[in-house]
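Input record, target 12 of the design panel.
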């Protein structure tokens, strides 16, 4: 059980991380897991954290941060395993909410068919649910679930949760090259997200840190752009998490900087790029220069040209 940060998070701003599960107890052992292989596969909920003690430590840490003038936007349950395995999660969230700071939970959604898990998550202000594949076989190959889990039940549970949840719901889909990054699967995932979850935002991520299975590869920029297009065509507000901490919210007069900031968050359609250039009184030569310098790339997808940020080590 640990508290870490605050760390800057593109999704949550300045986030104080709270770990309520012992190291690597999870219901999945995802091929891309950046924490490493799961040490104990589990689906039975147990009391892992002591909410009173953990919340007291968080409150103490918050008073220290007040003294140093550091801001905390979210208290985020982001453990080295699956947070909903903790039977004390609901009480922990209620105690954390006493601080007045919004509370977020990042979950793999595997236990969401259980009513008590949904009830616990309803307490959170912000919830992210994982949806890597709609096809059961792909779900098994990517997330490598505990054998007792049923994919159909999870999808129904997610739908039920989304119907009643009053907070900010997000989804996260991790793309693994050659597995779930093809258009057929992504269209199924996008349709499910759009029709059954209607999240505030869907995040598409790629494995940017060493994965649990060494053969896992990051999809290329073209594939990420295609995934983004497939999601947005379903009317989903989508962002990509490709390892950049670019700041799309920075107000700048420099069109090049603005395009780099936005493409750090998601690929940009050529008409949007032209609009930025027009607003800033610039012309397409600046974008040609970025392409020539190898900082962004032009990608054709469907009827549109997209601009995608080129990922380089050191820029992450
Ligand atoms: S659900 Fe999260 S913690 Fe569990 S194996 Fe997958 S990536 Fe790792």
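The sequence produced for target 12 reads:
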């Amino acid at each position: 059980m640990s508290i870490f940060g605050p760390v800057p998070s593109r999704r949550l701003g300045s986030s104080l991380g709270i770990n309520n599960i012992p190291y690597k107890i999870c219901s999945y052992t995802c091929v891309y897991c950046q924490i490493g292989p799961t040490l104990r596969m589990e689906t039975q909920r147990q009391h892992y954290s002591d909410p009173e003690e953990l919340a007291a430590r968080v409150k103490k840490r918050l008073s220290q941060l007040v003294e140093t003038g550091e801001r905390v936007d979210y208290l985020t349950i982001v453990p080295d395993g699956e947070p909903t395995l903790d039977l004390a999660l609901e009480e922990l969230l209620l105690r954390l909410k006493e601080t007045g700071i919004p509370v977020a939970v990042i979950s793999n959604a595997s236990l969401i068919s259980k009513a008590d898990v949904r009830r616990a998550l309803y307490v959170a202000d912000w919830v992210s649910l994982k949806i890597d594949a709609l096809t059961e076989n792909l779900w098994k190959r990517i997330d490598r679930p505990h054998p007792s889990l049923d994919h159909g039940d999870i999808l129904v549970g997610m739908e039920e949760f989304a119907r009643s949840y009053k907070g900010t719901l997000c989804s996260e889909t991790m793309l693994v090259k050659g597995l779930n990054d093809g258009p057929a699967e992504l269209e199924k995932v996008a349709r499910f997200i759009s029709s059954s979850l209607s999240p505030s935002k869907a995040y598409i991520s790629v494995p940017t840190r060493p994965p649990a299975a060494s053969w896992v590869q990051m999809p290329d920029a073209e594939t990420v752009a295609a995934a983004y297009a497939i999601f947005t065509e379903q009317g989903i507000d989508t962002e990509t998490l490709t390892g950049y901490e670019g700041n799309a919210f920075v107000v700048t007069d420099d069109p090049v900087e603005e395009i780099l900031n936005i493409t750090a968050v998601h690929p940009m359609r050529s008409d949007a790029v032209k609009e930025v250039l027009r607003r800033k009184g610039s012309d397409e030569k600046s974008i040609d220069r970025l392409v020539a310098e190898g900082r962004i790339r032009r990608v054709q997808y469907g009827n549109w040209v997209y601009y995608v940020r080129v990922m380089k080590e050191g820029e992450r």
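Residues 245-250 have pLDDT under 50 and may be disordered.
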